[in-house]
Amino acid sequence: MIIKKIKLENYTVFENLNIDFCPGINIFIGENGTGKTHILKVLYSACQSVSKKISFSHKLVCTMLPDDYKISRLITRKQGNRNSLIRITAGKSDGGQDRAITMSFNGKTRKWDAEVVGEEGWEQSFAGISSIFIPAKEILSHSYNLNAASEVDNVRFDDTYLDIINAAKIDVSAGRNSTAKEAMLKAVEKMTHGTVLYDAKRDEFYLKRGNSKQEFNLIAEGIRKMALLWQLIKNGTLEKGSVLFWDEPENNINPAYIPVIVEILLELQRKGVQIFVATHNYMIANYFEVRKTEQDSILFHSLFHKDDAGGIQYEKASGFADLKENAIISAFDKLLDEIYDL
Predict the structure, then answer these.
(1) C-beta separation of 191 from 260 below 8 A
(2) Cα–Cα distance between 223 and 232 in angstroms, integer?
(3) pLDDT tens, residue by residue, 78-127
(4) pLDDT digits (tens, 9 = 90+) for 289-336
């Protein structure tokens, strides 16, 4: 599956947005509140709805968690805006006809009962495609009984957290690891100094180091995030045709790990995984520039406010430094100015 386009009208912070994606790595930058995570969650919800068990509109509500599960609360908060539209277009990596799924709702829509068009064709074309969303905050250390507690409303986590726990528990791989896969696993193991072990009886994750195992909650969060990446690579969920969404991979990560993360994402993209990343990190963005080859497919997307224009504005570029509106470089330049003043 390759997500090609998204169109948003009057959805959260977006009054009118159209984005074309590349088949490789799509990197979103922008200040807080410009909707980076919102885009990732919309795309993820559409990817999840390739299953006949999951509806696009219900999944979107469960990932965004508006009050009382009312999808109408996702309409842009502006006087006169009472109708919202979402359209996503995708195709297969081996070609063929593109498919689009469209959702519309208004201020009178009850709960998640939006009108969805194209869902049946979407399911038929992309059935079985895997999609993974890694949230900004590590969650495997809280895996014990979390899904059950969420079912009875004892805790409230959006579906991206619940789904990633379930994805980490499942082993869909078979046979020996490929050379590329083995190299990625070894690179992560150098940082974690161990491998991931899931104890189904206790419903807990551990980091296995030699003959001993350590509870996830006793390990630094940065190590836990890298261990999660190891688990997703190991269990076969990140294979050709799958889609990976990663919200702020730099959170609580040792800067020394960043080039390794970039190399792994580049390698996954070379294996046919489409990737969407939202980041505020200067090093991550620049390492993609430094490490990419001519064969790699990378596109930078900038979301920004502009006083003389309505809603969030957008631009894209194949090079990080080619973005005219670049919140990361602007912040870095301000820091350099202060350093030079000293």
Answers:
(1) yes
(2) 14
(3) 777 689 999 999 998 777 789 999 999 998 999 999 999 999 999 999 98
(4) 899 999 999 999 999 988 766 678 999 999 999 999 888 888 888 888
Q: How far apart (Å, rounded) are the C-alpha atoms in residues 127 and 25?
A: 22
Task: Judge whether 24 and 296 are in contact, CB under 8 Å.
Answer: yes
Burial code (b: 16+ CB inside 10 Å, e: under 16) for 44-76 equals: bbbbbbbeeebbbbbbbbbbbebeeebbbbbbb
The candidate with the shortest Cα–Cα distance to 128, out of 92, 88, 168, is 92
274 within 8 A of 298, measured Cβ to Cβ: no
Select from 119, 131, 122, 115 the least CA-distant residue to 98.
122
Here the contacts of 136-140 (C-beta below 8 Å, separation 24 or greater) are 136/37, 136/247, 136/248, 136/251, 137/161, 137/251, 138/221, 138/224, 138/225, 138/228, 138/252, 139/164, 139/165, 140/164, 140/165, 140/168, 140/205, 140/216, 140/224, 140/227, 140/228
Ramachandran area for residue 236 (φ above 0: left; ψ -120 to 50: alpha; else beta):
left
Three-class DSSP category at 321: helix
Containing 335, the helix (H) or strand (E) segment is helix 327-341
Q: Give dist(CA 64, CA 84) in Å, integer.
A: 15
In the chain, the domains with their CATH numbers are 2-130+239-341 (3.40.50.300), 139-237 (no CATH)
The DSSP secondary structure of 233-299, one letter per residue, reads HHTT-S-TT-EEEEE-TTTT--GGGHHHHHHHHHHHHHTT-EEEEE---HHHHHHHHHH--TT--EE
CA R_g for the chain: 20
What six digits make up the tokens of 86?
A: 């979402």
8 Å CB contact between 139 and 155:
no
CA 74/CA 84 separation, integer angstroms: 8
